[in-house]
Amino acid sequence: MLDVASQPVIPLRGKPPSTHAEQRNPGVPLDLSWVDGLRVNQSAVSRRVSTLGTRRSVKKDAQAAWLLKAITCIDLTTLNGDDTAARVERLCAKARRPIRDDLLDALGMPPGSIKTGAVCVYHRFVGTAVAALAGSGIPVAAVSTGFPAGLIPHPLKLKEIEASVTDGAAEIDIVVTREHVLTGNWQALYDEMHDFRAACGPAHIKAILATGDIRTLSNIAKASMVCMMAGADFIKTSTGKEGVNATLDVSLVMVRMIREYLERTGMMIGFKPAGGVSTAKSVLEYQILMKEELGREWLEPELFRIGASSLLADIERQLEHHVTGRYSAFHRHPVA
C-alpha cells in the first residue's frame, strides 16, 4: 500500500526524465495495481502544505523574479457566458504584453520579453484567439468535452475536441466524467481519457479532474494516475466552476502522483492548478510546492500552468510596488 502523503521530499530517482522536446505522454496500458494500493493520509497532507509558506522566504528582487516567471506559466482565461470576440481579443493583447514596458525596464527586462503561457477560451472563440495571437508564439487552449459538467454524449465530446484542433487550438483542456471516479470505474475513465488523447492528435491534452466534485484525496490520487496512464500531458485540478477549486492539499496529492508516474515511466507530466489562485502570495506557494516536490524543471510553462485571470492583475500590482514603493488600485490593471 502506498501512503501518498507520507512520502519524504527526496531527489527524483528511477528512469531518467524525458526532455521537454519529448514531452508528449504516450501513456501505458491500464494496470490497476498502480491504483488499488493508493491511500492518502489527510493529516500528513495538511502538515506538509502548512510548511510551504514558512520553509522558504522569497523577498524583494527574488520575489519579483519568481512573479515574472509565474506570468509565463499563466493560462490567461476567460470562460464566461457573456464572452465576446472583442473581450477575447483584448485578453490576447494582454497575453502578449502582460506587464507594462516601464515596469519591465525598471526590472532590467527588455520590453515585450514576458508573455503568458497560453490563452484559454471556449471552442467558439478559438479562431478569434488564434488570429489575435498570430506570430506571438502563445498557444491557444480550448476547454472541451462539454466543459464544465462533461455530461454531453461521448461522440460529441470527441467531435468538439477535433473541431478545436482544426480551428488551431494547440492545447485541449478536457473534463473527465466524474461518475467514473465516484463509482471506481477506472476502466471506463481510462478508455474515455484514451479516446480524448487520440482525438487531440498533435495538441497537448490537459485532464481536468474537477477535484471539488470527486471529493476525497484518495479519489484524486487514483484519478490522476489513471489519466496519466491513458496519455494525459497535464493533470489539472478544477474547472473553476466547482464549489471548491484548486487547493494546496489537492495539489500536493496530484504532484506526488506525477512524481510516482515519473519514477515508473520516465515521463514528465505537467500540472495545472485552476480556480482560486488569484493573488501573488498564493502563486508563490504553488511555485514553492512545484520546486520542492518535483524540481526546477516544473517551474517552466512546459510543465506548470496556472489557470487564472485576476491573478495577473495582482502580480502586476506587486511588481509596481516593488519598483515604486506604492500600491496602485486593482482597477488600474485590467485583464481584458
TrEMBL record:
<dbReference type="InterPro" id="IPR011343">
    <property type="entry name" value="DeoC"/>
</dbReference>
<dbReference type="GO" id="GO:0005737">
    <property type="term" value="C:cytoplasm"/>
</dbReference>
<comment type="pathway">
    <text>Carbohydrate degradation; 2-deoxy-D-ribose 1-phosphate degradation; D-glyceraldehyde 3-phosphate and acetaldehyde from 2-deoxy-alpha-D-ribose 1-phosphate: step 2/2.</text>
</comment>
<comment type="similarity">
    <text>Belongs to the DeoC/FbaB aldolase family. DeoC type 2 subfamily.</text>
</comment>
<protein>
    <recommendedName>
        <fullName>Deoxyribose-phosphate aldolase</fullName>
        <ecNumber>4.1.2.4</ecNumber>
    </recommendedName>
</protein>
<dbReference type="GO" id="GO:0004139">
    <property type="term" value="F:deoxyribose-phosphate aldolase activity"/>
</dbReference>
<keyword id="KW-0456">Lyase</keyword>
<feature type="region of interest" description="Disordered">
    <location>
        <begin position="1"/>
        <end position="27"/>
    </location>
</feature>
<keyword id="KW-0704">Schiff base</keyword>
<dbReference type="Pfam" id="PF01791">
    <property type="entry name" value="DeoC"/>
</dbReference>
<dbReference type="InterPro" id="IPR013785">
    <property type="entry name" value="Aldolase_TIM"/>
</dbReference>
<dbReference type="InterPro" id="IPR002915">
    <property type="entry name" value="DeoC/FbaB/LacD_aldolase"/>
</dbReference>
<dbReference type="GO" id="GO:0009264">
    <property type="term" value="P:deoxyribonucleotide catabolic process"/>
</dbReference>
<dbReference type="GO" id="GO:0016052">
    <property type="term" value="P:carbohydrate catabolic process"/>
</dbReference>
